[in-house]
Amino acid sequence: MSITSAQPDANGTIHTATGQCCFLCGRELHDPAVFWMGATAEVYLHADCVPDLAVRMFRDVHEIRNPEYYGRRGLR
Ligand SMILES: [Zn+2]
């Protein structure tokens, strides 16, 4: 994980969010934003969108680990 900036990092690399869209809401981004580089893709997010995505991801993990909980309540 990293925070974008128009300024180069210690390695001289610039990770700016300018020209990128938020992975969650799709709106245009500006620095500073959250940047993740995964094995197959890069993800940019507004700082305000990170908690919304994290909560949704945690909910999905909880459902995977507890399918009977969601099945009984018709939440699947
Ligand atoms: Zn966003």
Number of strands: 3
Ligands bound, unique = zinc ion
The radius of gyration computed from the alpha-carbon positions, rounded to a whole number of angstroms, is 16 Å
Largest sheet, described in full?
3 strands, antiparallel
How many structurally independent domains?
1
Shape: elongated
SSE pattern: EEEHH
Low-confidence stretches: none
- Helices and strands: which structural class? alpha+beta
Description:
By secondary structure, the chain is of the alpha+beta class. The chain has one domain. The protein has two helices and three strands. The protein has helices at 49-65, 67-72, and strands at 2-3, 34-37, 42-45. The chain has a three-stranded antiparallel sheet, with no helix packed on it. A hairpin with a 4-residue loop joins strand 2 and strand 3 (42-45). The radius of gyration is 16 Å and the shape is elongated. The two termini are 31 Å apart. Residues 22, 24-25, 27, 45-46, 49 line the site of zinc ion.
